[in-house]
Amino acid sequence: MHAQIEVLASLQTVDREIKEQAGLKQSLLDELQAKERELQAKQKEVDTLAVAAAEKEKLRAEKDRVFQDEGKKATDKRMRMNRIKNAKELQALQREIDMMRQANGELEEELIKIMQEIDAIKASRAAKEAEMVALQEAWQKQQQELGGQINDIDQAVAEKLSQRQSIAANVARDLISRYELIFSRRGGNAVVEIAGGICQGCFMNIPPQMGNEIIRSEKIHNCPSCQRIVYVKPVPLDEAKSA
Ligand SMILES: [Zn+2]
Hints:
Blueprint: H1 3-83, H2 87-168, H3 173-185, E1 191-195, E2 198-199, H4 208-216, E3 221-222, E4 229-231, H5 237-242
Parallel strand pairs: 1-4
Antiparallel strand pairs: 1-2, 3-4
Helix pairs in contact: 1-2
Bound molecules: zinc ion.
């Protein structure tokens, strides 16, 4: 087997481990991000309820002011009644006062309804806030756990990278670039074996003549179908018999 390819194959083993770790790290980060989005959504729900409560409070204050004003006007009118002697005028004023009383009664009912609505909004806001606190605690705990796992991954990758560097030092630069290009295009599978005349990367036949050449020559060969770097594993004697 070509020495360079042997080195490339071991480089690929390390690169696959790095790739796997990177994927693992990404999935942990994705998990964290999903939790963060969940938190943000919950915060938005709380904010929306806070806005709704504030609007209702404003409405309550307006209605309350009208209620107080009307109450004062009714009191004034009642006081005026004491000074009026004319029966017709008195009757008219009494009618006015009755109408005002009715209007104020309706206003009072409205006020009660608004206050009940405010209570309901506040209750659901408190519930959402409690949910958020629980979510936040879970998130923080998970963040710590995942942070530890991510640290471990980073450390493992750093080790693998230095391992990679010492392996890569034994391969010609242009071959490394060729290998890296294929590695990224072929999903981390750049160096493959030919077994039974078939490329183990794309499972297409390798022309027999090319297969012989691969065994004999010191040149780097690429699969004519998938362009992966191909090699033939030397077959041990006892396996050669059963094959
Ligand atoms: Zn192939």
